Amino acid sequence: MSLNPITSLYYIAPCCLAFLTMPWYFVELPRLRAAAGGRPDVFVFWTNSLCAFALTLAVFLLVGKTSALTMNVAGVVKDWLLIAFSWTVIKDTVTPVNLIGYGIAFLGVAYYNHAKLQGLRAKEAERKAASMATVKESDAEAGARLLPEKDSGRQKN
Description:
Elements: H1 5-36, H2 42-65, H3 68-88, H4 96-146, H5 150-156
Helix pairs in contact: 1-2, 2-3, 3-4
């Protein structure tokens, strides 16, 4: 079964609401009432909701066009960018263990990209070979139709 992103949201959003309402009620609502005096900022709520909707739609589009694995690899790249930002702009510390972990993650992403590229090349070569075989078969059939058969000519004499 293949669903487009909007249909996927149609089915998934009610489940998310059902499972997130209980923790929100017990964890977030008391903090919200204490901080805002019982009146939440409606503008912030709606803009945050719109951003969450757009992000979820983008995730479904990405997974629909590529794969869930590509989404996970994109998440690793996003983490690298966040770490690079926090290291350069915020001046957060990065330990050698962190750098080794990022290096391993980098090698994993590089291997994934290499394997995916090799798979695409193999599919392309297979498709080309199949089309060439089809062309050769059709050429042989056309040649057989155009050239008179030698055996049938001998039988007539």
